[in-house]
Design a protein that fits this description.
about 40% helix, 5-stranded mixed beta sheet, globular, 7-stranded mixed beta sheet, alpha/beta
Length: about 475
Amino acid sequence: MNDLLSSLPNMNSLTEHPIFVNMGNERVKSVARAILDDLRHQILSGAISNAPSLDECAGLIFERLSTESSNLRRVINATGVVLHTNLGRAPLGKEMLAEALIACEGYNNLEYDLKTGKRGSRYTHVENLICEIIETEAALVVNNNAAAMVLILATLAAGKNVAISRGELVEIGGSFRVPEIIMQSGAELIEIGSTNKTKLSDYADAVEHKNAELLLKVHTSNYEIVGFTQSVSISELSEYGASVGRPVVYDAGSSFLIDTQPYGFDAGETAMSGLKAGADIICFSGDKLMGCAQAGIIAGRSDLISAMKKHPLTRALRPDKLTLSVLESALRQYRYPDEAATRIPVLAMLFSKSDNLKLRAESFTTRLKASLTNCRVDAVEVMDETGGGSLPNVPLPGWAVSIKPSTLSVNALEQGLRAYKTPIIIRIQDEAILVSVRTLLPGDEDVISEALIELEGKADGGDISHD
């Protein structure tokens, strides 16, 4: 036993092994120490009777190092849900990431005015672009749309009464609710109307008899109330607010920055529409229909925005250099709608025509049929989703590749794809996995094909268990 222990390679011989020439010495030492401790334990317990050689030990260390990965990893979204909240919502285009890398890998002029040589404002990098694109007086960016709402109400309505329709007291992701956000801002909530019906007279009653000092409208972006319903449009509410001197705030939730109809997409609304309808302030998310980084964008009257910039919460809610860099890159693309429609991934996915998706699905089906021997592969029509609490009940006719394995279960295949070196997230329907092509990015099909071939081979060899 002592001979076996003494025959184990020493630390220096392992860390100097040629296989680790491009790896950090401290990382190799840490894993080597764990491997050697494990081998000593196995020798002492009698689990092994032969000590591994230097090359074998180095191989064990290299294998463990190779399996180390970040907790936050790239995955392939084959679900057909464009803004998948669990998968990071909007994927960022190559241009956005490339420009962010250039701006942020070293120092940058985040708060430095290159013209004057004096301190500048981080907001100037994007404010003028937002004002130009959505045609507004002023703008401000914070770190998400919930933060935008907190800042707006804390600035304009702290200690004041805020009127909102009961049908708009929505719950957003993570169990955060609009009433709680209003209360956290220091404002007092006045619920008006009913769940399914709210009239302009309800707002008037809140102003005249309950001293409502701000009128709030929240877009129900993650659900719809249908049937016997009535609501007040933002234009009606804005006209009334102006007549009684009450600011109107519109939480649009998720907005496009371009008119979508020229691209055959007749759903959703633009940020400009809320402002043109007369809202004093609007806010919306950057990582939803805008297809950018997580951010809360506030726009509208310059005097109100100016007051928000001076509020102490603004510093706590401000975006960082990475967010601003990605946001600026996206906004410059939005100056040219045709460019944005094709180069911002979310827009390209949403605007994809069913016929084009069919061709992609059929081409991928042909490719997989030639590679897989124990799976039935078909191109099938599916219904994709926008997701991300945006555009509920808006159908997205799409196409997917349906794969029915014969040598392993559908659940085992799903688990194998999810555990692949680049995790592949799919959906299961009718005893088959579905790979929706709408949400696949360039290169994804290569990885999926490679994974399926590998998993089928393991199943044929009995390496994947059956349910």
